[in-house]
Amino acid sequence: MNPAWWAAFGPAEAQLRCGGAQHRLRWADGTLHALDHPDAEGELVLGALGGDTSPCLDMIAAWGKHCDDLAVLAVGPRSAADVLTIPASVLAELTAVSGGGYHLLGNPAAHAVSIGGTVSQHSSVSFYSAQASRSGRVRSHHGFQDRDWIRQVLTRLRTHGSVLALDQRRIRREIRATASRLARPRTSPRARGWTGYAPVGMHARLVAGWGRPEVDEARAELIRLLALGAPFQFRLAAAVAHVWSADGANAGRSDRARPTLAAALAGRLAPAAANWLDIDPDEVEVNVHDGVGWGELALTKTGETGRLTARLPVGWLASVWAPGLAVVDGHLVVSVLDATWPAARVLALRAPGSDPVELAVHHDKRRWSITSR
Amino acid sequence: MTAASEHAAPDRERAETYLRLLAEAELRRALAMPEYKPPRERMLGQLVGLLARRRLMRRRRALVQRAMQQQGAGSVSAGNQNSHASQSVPLARAIAAPAVIRQAARSLHSARTAVAAPAATMLSAAARATSQFGARAQEATWRLRRQFSRRFLRRRRGYEPPPAEACLERVETLAGVFAAVGAIASRTEEDVVGGLRAALAARGRIEQDALLDYHTFGGVAVQSPSGPGGHPMRRMASGTAAPAGPPRTIPVGASASGEIEGVRVRFYLGVLVFDRSGVTLTVHVRFPAELQEQDHGHMDPVYDALNQISAVDDRSATYRADFSGGGGSAEWYGRLRMSPAPPPGVRWLDMTLPGAPPCRLRLDAPPRDLRIITEPATTGAADHFLDDDTIQLLCSEPADLRWVSDGDCDQPPLFQIAGHFVAAGVLGTDSPSVRRLAAAAARLGAQLPESLAGIEPTDLPADWLSTVSRAGCTDGPTGAIPIAVVLPEVDGVQCVLGDLVSEDDMASMQVYARGWPEPRHPRGTRNEQIWWSARDNLGGRYFVGEGGWNDHNGETDLDLEITPAINPQARALDIILTGPTTQVTVSVPLDWQEAL
């Protein structure tokens, strides 16, 4: 019988501000606990019924919600050396996201503008904006513009007070990024300085659909979870990988997520294999292994470089990679046979193509090392 | 190679896996780059602020010191009798200081109150004068400043994106192209790009507030396929079946001279379209040639004038027209939406255009009898994408694919994207479009990437060569044709062709559509699953691109641009709309009307 996916993980703790005090969150045995909320379950129920919630319990709820979120694998760490930093400024903006003040464009009466730019085949900016003026008239601007024109529009919008609280920094970035993509000026004179107008009705749907709260909330939750720190990032990634593995709750739906899971495996095996064999990580090809056993792995030499091809189960991410067991003392671990942190028995390869050997490993609070073969 | 094999549907799972693995490789590449430190945008402003504050504080200190000296002098003279006066002066000053400051502050406050009103009036008048002068100066020196900033300032002030943006941009472009040709779903495109953007931002390789970007990321799509759609510009093709009964259209083709704000203009009213949401009339306004080069910075008079157009019918009922469209220094064009919609049975409308006599539109004019052919589509979206961009490359006008090559590679981005098409299984190595690309590369003397090195070139089609030979021509006929034809439905999309307006260097066509997929230019990439093309009776081929669109409740107004200039010898133009399964061709006789 396989050990639990979390068996090779030690507990982890983080602190966060909750109700004016520093509270502790503790992850152990695959579950996140709010240590300073003894009746967390009751509080969560009350919260669901419309009662007050707290940051600790919000975090517990978010953890549960994102335990099968493949975005964790897309954004989360690829190796122990891969450090994610969520700056305080981003976390501060997240407060605005969940506070409801962010969705100015969700309200057709709001005075706001958003500008998106793309580049057409003629290297001009395909410019789009929707602006709700004080009189309630929505003006849309779309067409092909050059960057000077965009500056003029921005200046005019600011002068008219229409670019109010809506994340001006984002607009600026969008405009700067768009302008930087311009390679050469628009050649056709007919589109120069083109400004489009449309009556209110035409943009009601567009404005109403903007900045949907559920998208922002999901994104905000995930960023807050990642901000808990590296130990939690790895544990959350393990939880997600487990859910999508053959033993997980979403195993039946994993076919739809196969490309994502293959990329998640490749993105994590590549640095581990590069470390193990000193090969180019771009020369690592991984596929999802569905059958019985740990999978397969082979190295083909092409000139100076080698190419590693592997098939590994998604569960490898949860039980091997996430607890930091991928490479232990020159062995690539392919499976965990038994584990009670800080000790584990694993199946590992000394070299590609060799038969896996059973190893006993131990975690000394810094890294795993072999204790007996 | 048969048409059927050219049109094989791509393997979406393979293409998605390829793209996601590419994103992983680009993330690794970005991680090898140094962390991005955003430029301190307001450093100069902060410095100026600090200096100003320092100066102010120095003045205040001097004021307080002077007050203290005066107070101290008074205390000293009064305390001369006292034997220990000299020791107590600093202490007395210290005790007196707050009172002195308070007194000084009170005096300043009362003085400020006394002068506040006249000063405010004076200041606001000065500000008004300054701003008026500033506006005049700005207007007068605009060209000069623009030239100056172009020449000297742009490089210094220009935005330098983080180096890792190039990694993101490659994935973004490829994802956009894959989605545009239907090799992956739009949702997958968002997911891959959003995930990579967030991953780069969380590692400080691009600006970190990209974590808050509006493009969503993550596997939420797997949990809820109909879940949040992200940015509204990324709405999926509506795919809704058109309501019962096709739209109706009437050719108008009326011209009139008018006047807006004292400027003589020409109006051209093209085609009336009747649909469920109302009645629209295509309109063009042209400025006199001598005024076309002027900077029309403030367009509101034109917009307002176009919104004052009204009409009266043969039963004396009146209508208002709301303008939707836009314009620039040469002309304005768009649609007039009639409100209320003229009921059935109305025979004519007299339009009141600004500064023009009433212009009568006959509503009982029969639609044009044009030859329309409906047939199965024989070209896949990926082939079309590659072909179109290959012709542009041959015309020395390569499409801007937003692709920063990695390393020393100086191959055109199109070659690299074609290489990715083949590697991802979107197109086979025997695909005709890939072979035509190889032929184009040979003609241009360019080298294909390694993945395409073994491709056998094929002959370039004759109509391609005709397009290449006419690139940049400025001999197009000048005039308009109110086409006014309702096309049969193409894969859930129904279009009404409005008017075709030809100029010396290009032509344009206004189209009304139901169920049109949007947006058409996600991140600069064309949506290729439904596209337009044109051919003249002499075998010349034309690009038909979109110059703009306006969507309202599933009904879309499209402005199409046709390049190169229409051959003046051509007598008919086939306008072709191709969808995933169906293609419609309408042949339009080129009997140009003098319009504008």
Description:
- The complex is a heterodimer of chains A (373) and B (596).
- Chain A is of the alpha+beta class and 373 residues long.
- Chain A is built from 11 helices and 15 strands.
- In chain A, the strands form 4 sheets. In chain A, strands 11-12-13-14-15 form a 5-stranded antiparallel beta sheet.
- In chain A, helix 4 packs antiparallel against helix 8 (213-226).
- Residues 96-215 of chain A have low confidence and may be disordered.
- Chain B is an alpha+beta fold and 596 residues long.
- Chain B has 4 domains: 3-37 and 161-234; 43-79 and 87-157, no CATH class; 248-362, Sandwich (Immunoglobulin-like), CATH 2.60.40; 368-596, no CATH class.
- Chain B has helices spanning 3-6, 12-31, 43-78, 85-140, 142-157, 165-180, 186-202, 220-223, 300-306, 381-394, 413-423, 432-444, 462-470; strands at 248-260, 263-275, 278-286, 310-313, 318-327, 331-339, 348-352, 359-362, 371-376, 479-486, 494-502, 507-514, 531-536, 541-552, 555-563, 572-578, 582-589.
- Chain B has a 9-stranded antiparallel beta sheet. Chain B has an 8-stranded antiparallel beta sheet with strand order 1-2-3-6-5-4-7-8.
- In chain B, a hairpin with a 2-residue loop joins strand 14 and strand 15 (555-563).
- In chain B, helix 2 (12-31) runs antiparallel to helix 6 (165-180) and helix 3 (43-78) runs antiparallel to helix 4.
- The interface between A and B is large, with 89 and 90 residues.
- Strand 7 of chain A pairs antiparallel with strand 5 (318-327) of chain B.
